[in-house]
């Protein structure tokens, strides 16, 4: 189960899971929950009786609901939602965000805004890492929540930034889709990137290197997450006491959208 089939992060994740499943003679049924927790809960109840196991990628259920779903006889693996319930795979989002903010600070940016996403574990960890990096540098944090984690949400975020007062020097976006929308809106307003405002994001959008300017990313290992989640689920199907999956890490891809300020 994924949140948005149009998001390249989930596309790559499904590719990884499908490859591992095929190697073990399993088929993958793909379900798009459309960022809807109620729809997700209903689909889980329907599919658990018809499948050997479920992977929940970016679940919008509450921690309490996820804990209640834990059942070794009907295994579930989460991606990016560690809880006391079902086991899962994740990226060290806190460190990734700290490194990305540190890169912007090293490039000379001082007023750095975090354009947040949906308030779940991934976003909380990213905001925490961002705040820690700014605190170490003696800088003030500014957090604005995007209206949606997609391109339209990024376009609307441009107005949110202007309404908040003085524009920041740079913006770290929750994901690359938000960043693409933001860059489009800022450019339409005549603002030059990175000369007047830098933009960076988390993600692995295949077009990021080809945008104008090319987008700096903390690249997420989406396909590897899918592979790891599938291996863990297959392990749980074979043995309910299968070990936890290893933690994954992002990789900084510095590009022109955060070029050093003179």
Automatic annotation (TrEMBL):
Residues 7-240 form the Periplasmic binding protein/LacI sugar binding domain. The lineage of its organism: Bacteria, Thermotogati, Deinococcota, Deinococci, Deinococcales. Gene3D superfamilies: 3.40.50.2300. Pfam families: Peripla_BP_1 (PF00532). GO terms for molecular function: DNA-binding transcription factor activity; transcription cis-regulatory region binding. It comes from Deinococcus reticulitermitis. This is LacI family transcriptional regulator. It comes from the Bacteria. Keywords: DNA-binding, Transcription, Transcription regulation.
